[in-house]
């Protein structure tokens, strides 16, 4: 019996957090992704770096549900929630400071067609350095099927990015803002879930 307990203890000791993740954007999707990553037990990333210079406003319902304070930097909410794991950096990523991104995985949680060029720059930067990237490809739709696929073959918003290589994983409904549909918490939760799963799969394969 004691031998079994010792074996279990040794196995538990092996299941520790490994790897580092950068999350770009801490809005309605980004905060879900970060909080889901925090909740991973017996593994997951050792450190989560979150980049966004936005502050919590009255319409940031999900942040407020997590205990966010109006006027607080969005990235400081998850850091305050779990400072042992999360580093909140109140700065937006731009073409001029991409080099501050770090870790094994970059999760792109930025929204809007005006972010496509920047996302393209980040993906190409990561490709050159062997960093895994996971992003979105549309979050619109009431009851849409959220899919996971390679961004090179996107027919959604990511199709406007110049992605020459395979390897940038995207998660989404594939719908555009021109489809004039809403963004529901259920879709965001499903996108977050699948982004986190893809992140964990990559970290597991790298550190196994």
Verbal overview:
The protein has one domain (18-207): 3-Layer(aba) Sandwich (Rossmann fold), CATH 3.40.50.720. The chain has helices at residues 2-14, 30-39, 61-65, 76-81, 116-129, 185-207; strands at residues 20-24, 47-51, 86-89, 105-108, 132-136, 147-150, 168-172. With 208 residues, the chain is α/β, with parallel strands linked by helices. Strands 3-2-1-4-5-7-6 form a 7-stranded mixed beta sheet, with helices on both faces. It contains 6 helices and 7 strands. Helix content is 34%, strand content 15%.
| Beta strand % | 15-25%
Q: Classify the secondary structure makeup into a structural class.
A: alpha/beta
How is the biggest beta sheet arranged?
Answer: 7 strands, mixed
Distance between the termini: 28 Å
Number of domains: 1
User: Could you name the CATH topology?
Assistant: Rossmann fold
Order of helices and strands: HEHEHHEEHEEEH
Q: Approximately how much helix is present in the residues?
A: 25-40%
**CATH structural class:** Alpha Beta
CATH superfamily: NAD(P)-binding Rossmann-like Domain
> Taking Cα atoms only, what radius of gyration do you get, to the nearest Å?
18 Å
Determine the number of helices (DSSP H or I, runs of at least 4 residues).
Answer: 6
The overall average pLDDT, rounded, is 93
* Global geometry: globular
Under the CATH scheme, which architecture would be assigned? 3-Layer(aba) Sandwich
| Strands, count | 7
Q: Please list the strands of the largest sheet in the order they lie side by side.
A: 3-2-1-4-5-7-6
Pick out the low-confidence regions: none
